[in-house]
UniProtKB/TrEMBL annotation:
UniProt-listed InterPro entries: DinB/YfiT-like, MST-like
Organism encoding this protein: Streptomyces mooreae
Highest taxon of the lineage: Bacteria
Protein name, as recorded: DinB family protein
Length: 164
């Protein structure tokens, strides 16, 4: 099957921050790309036993962005969602979920860039440990990339579209 959504891997290698942000951004874009051109019903369609949906993945990642970058990195108590599940709240449209993810990404990027040095400690400890912002960026990059892979499979099941 032909890959129809393939994106090139970033070649950024100018600094630690630039490289880290390029790969985080790439992973985020891969997730969002999987939603392109789909209907509300397709985005909400559960095709695996767990009930995971493309829209649920995006919702989960928006919450995770706020939790890790807003709460832990920036220290904003209001960004601790408690539950970072994949269940999209009733009444939230696909457009709202996607816009919320865009807003969460913008806020996350601002939080990361305000710190500047990835070696700095988070504002709020992670399970009692003041990990580095570098750790949070690496964690969210891997989390997002993992879910991009899930999104690849779901999208292929929906309409045969493949790629990263």
């Amino acid at each position: 099957m032909a890959e129809t959504q393939r994106r090139p891997v970033p070649r950024n290698d100018g600094s630690e921050l630039d490289t880290a942000m390029a790969f985080l951004s790439f992973s985020r874009q891969c997730v969002v790309k999987k939603t392109d051109g789909l209907t509300e019903e397709q985005l909400r369609r559960g095709l695996v036993e767990s009930g995971t949906t493309l829209l649920g993945l995006v919702h989960h990642l928006a919450l995770a962005e706020r939790f890790w970058f807003g709460y832990h990195v920036a220290g904003r108590e209001s960004d601790n969602p408690g539950d970072v599940g994949m269940q999209v709240p009733a009444g939230r449209s696909a457009g709202q979920v996607l816009a919320d993810y865009d807003a969460a990404i913008a806020a996350s990027d601002a939080a990361i860039r305000s710190v500047g040095d990835l070696g700095e400690s988070v504002a709020i400890p992670v399970e009692g440990t003041f990990l580095s912002v570098r750790w949070v960026v690496a964690h969210m990059t891997s989390e997002t990339a993992r879910h991009a892979g899930h999104a690849d499979i779901l999208r292929e099941q929906i309409d045969g579209t493949t790629g990263r």
